Amino acid sequence: MAAQSAVNSSRVVNIEDLRSLAQRRVPKAVFDYLDGGAEAELTLSENCRAFCDVLFRPRSAVAIGNCDLRTRVLGNEISFPAMLAPVGYSRLMHPGGEVAAARAAGEAGTGYILSTISGHKLEDVKAGSSGPVFYQLYLLGGREAAEGSLDRARHAGFAGLVITVDTPVAGLRERDPRNGMKELLGTSWLAKIPYLPNLLAHPGWLTSFLLDGGVPKLENVVIPGKGALELVDVGAALARATVTWEDLRWIREIWPGPIVVKGLLTGDDAKRAVDEGASAVVVSNHGGRQLDSVFPTLRALPEVVAAVNGQVEVLMDGGIRRGSDIVKALCLGARAVLVGRAYAYGLAAGGYAGVVRALQILRADVERTMRLLGCPCISGLDRSYIEVPHAWSNHGRNDAVRA
Q: Which of 21, 42, 45, 258 could pair covalently with 349 via S-S, beta carbons 3.0-4.6 A apart?
């Protein structure tokens, strides 16, 4: 109840406030896993900073009655143009984990994407949401394990499949080894000893964690003859689970629904995804958690939008902390955005109530921004409402320069 009261406090007015609450509630290893990025975290910071380079051009003296925030993603109407991105290890942040987040998304009238690296069974997550739920696929455990997961997702009624293609290996997230994330997930209490003081400093989280059974298994990665994959094995498993274009063709044969390809930053890759049968693409750099020093996703977005030329829907994620960020992405051609850390801070801070609060904040932000822009509906947003730096128009292959 204390966590719920905290996230609903009148002092929680933006996502950064939820971040501060999360930092106080969970151990440093868990918070930094959620908050951190790869290597020098240049891309992590640029994802957020890039929104500062885009300026609004509002229409003044416009009276708006009802402001229509609805849009459609892969045939599903959502109440405002943001869905919840896949966030691994959610059950470590709060026992409610993926079930709590999916429930909050459904009640807000939007969609949720379930990570392969989840501690709750996909059937429970789908049953807990009244909105569309998508399954995000890693090939952890090989094709046979993936086939089992996809069969379960199909029977459970998942709305589509999101294939992440930017993780041939896990990025070097330097905070994690310093904080003992591997030791926390491991079975050796001896290895945990150096990190116990910080765990004990967060008694609320620790009690919930232990009552929830400790480190969960990956309930949706079932290895034939061995059972659910241990959570600690994920890093090694990712190195053997690279998704290629050939894998996409195989998945297309066994998955009858829409396929979304997530993790693209160039027009060429976006065109390839369209050619391979994708129904949508997600401009994403994995929240700055994989290859550092790549383009922030907002800056990469226009190239991808131009490359697909309306053939498929374009989504984006990365750096979104305010509703104005969402509006800027839509002005640059995104159909909708995926938010990850923005809601995960709420989950870590207060479980279901925290995710609800994060979505309330973002939705109110979007509506207020729309009214101040003088735009009555999401479908009316375009580039005329923003100004972007001239240098952004040069993003892409510099063939002319090299010539």
A: 21
